[in-house]
Amino acid sequence: MSDPANITLVTMDGTTFTVPSAYLHRSKLVQDWLRSEGDKQAMEVKHVTPFVLQGVLNFCEIHAEDTSEPLADPADPTKPFEADPRDDAFRGMPDDQLLQFTMAADILQIPELVRLTAQEMASRIDGKSPDQIRAMFNPDDLAEEDVDSDNEMGEVGEEGAISK
Amino acid sequence: MPRLPPEILGHIFRLLKEAQGSKLDFLAASLVCTLWHMEAQPLFDPVSFQVNDLLLKNYIGHSRLIRRVRLYSLLAESLRYGLNYCDHLKSIAIDVTRVNDGLRACAAAIHQIMRLHPPSLQLINITYHWIPYVPAAVIELLDIIFPPGEVVSTTSLTICSNKKMGHGVTIQLLERLGPTLCNFSLSGSQFDATLLEALGRCRGLQQLSVCMGLHPGSGVRRAPPDSVAILAAALPNLTTLLFSARNFGKKVCVSNDQLREIVTRLPGLKRLMADADRTVNDECLRFVVRHAKKMEDLELIGCESLRGEGVWTENDVGCRGLRRLRLSGAFGISSSFIRLLQQECPGLSVELW
């Protein structure tokens, strides 16, 4: 039986992080796990590297005592995004790291972090061409059906070609 | 690098849509790849990017010009992917007095669109203002939009000038676009031999309008007096011929023989407007009305030699589809002729002035 005050997370390579459960009160995945499988020793967080999980836990620690209402929808237009200086680390990180943190936020279901990273990605798209956005976020590994539909169009476009 | 899940992309697109001034960012992101495009579609408002005219003008601020360049580049990219964002594009409007890097970039973006032949974009509209004008500047931009040797699909060209300028540009454009041109409208330029020859090479022309001609500058060759008939002979597909221009200060008028030749050479002519000289008489008008069987709209200016002579019969009216007849100076025209026409051509409107 694990300590209910703390939770241990295990990353893809077996690295463990033990943090106060309260840090992760905004993570729907963790809360669901605690309710259903909280008697287990540790929660596996597959697909997340230690570096990224450390960053996510830092975010959770910084915001652990925030009293704002949990964000139901990360892109809720009725709740304007306000930059928080405590999150500056996310704004300065390279594109590939930002992408990994976005994915981790999505996996752990932390709407506030999803919003922060999605907002940062949106702001980095500002003024960019599709080519530049492709270079930033590398979405060029097309699924097979995409390639097929490109061929049907008789035109294989540049990376990430759009089928109509 | 991992691939973004659809729900995250959905968040990003919603944030882009909500952000002020991010319309173009939204469009750019929607063109990144198939997955991104699919996620953008539910939020996409095609009206936001519905562009009817590609504008090349330098009366706007630099930041607006930059946004315009970006929009045109994105539209070109959408066209490359077979998307229908350019379906409303109808024309290129050019109104410049000088060239700068912003306009060159704008012209290059328009070229990116033009080389992909958007289906509805058929008209080029060029306007000259009173501001000092540099032909070389416009020609430089046109060279960017229509690089020499590249196939052009434009079918309509309108050039409007307030002053005696733009002649060189007109000639260049006719040389460049001539093979595909179907409609050409020229207002306010001089009419000389060079222009006549350039027009004569636009063999596919179906509609030609030349009006408000001005005095040519020095050093140009006069067009011959039978210019309109020469055009009719050179352009057999004309269905509309509107001609009211000046050649060295004199109106380019059609004579009796020339008017007959025009009607004979252009059996498909539906609309004719021309200045007539004093040789155009009742017999000539009878010939036109009898032989121009497709004519729907006929306007002759300066018909001072119509005297109401001769007797008209039903057999004289070949143009049963005539809907509008305007004759200026025809004060002596026979009232029986008018009655006969109105009887044989239902719905005909006649204006004598």
Automatic annotation (TrEMBL), chain A:
The keyword Cell wall biogenesis/degradation does not apply. The keyword Acyltransferase does not apply. Residues 7-64 form the SKP1 component POZ domain. Residues 79-93 have a biased composition (Basic and acidic residues). Coiled coil: none annotated. Residues 141-158 have a biased composition (Acidic residues). InterPro entries: SKP1 (IPR016897), SKP1-like_dim_sf (IPR036296), SKP1/BTB/POZ_sf (IPR011333), Skp1_comp_dimer (IPR016072), Skp1_comp_POZ (IPR016073). It holds the Pfam family Skp1_POZ. GO terms for biological process: protein ubiquitination; ubiquitin-dependent protein catabolic process. Pathway: Protein modification; protein ubiquitination. Keywords: Ubl conjugation pathway. Residues 68-93, 123-164 are annotated as: Disordered. Residues 112-146 form the SKP1 component dimerisation domain. Component of the SCF (SKP1-CUL1-F-box protein) E3 ubiquitin ligase complexes. Essential component of the SCF (SKP1-CUL1-F-box protein) E3 ubiquitin ligase complexes, which mediate the ubiquitination and subsequent proteasomal degradation of target proteins. Belongs to the SKP1 family. This is E3 ubiquitin ligase complex SCF subunit. The lineage of its organism: Eukaryota, Fungi, Fungi incertae sedis, Mucoromycota, Mucoromycotina.
From TrEMBL, chain B:
It comes from the Eukaryota. Pfam families: F-box-like. Transmembrane segments: none annotated. InterPro entries: F-box_dom (IPR001810), LRR_dom_sf (IPR032675). Residues 2-38 form the F-box domain. PANTHER family: AT02038P-RELATED, F-BOX/TPR REPEAT PROTEIN POF3. This is F-box domain-containing protein. It comes from Jimgerdemannia flammicorona. The lineage of its organism: Eukaryota, Fungi, Fungi incertae sedis, Mucoromycota, Mucoromycotina.
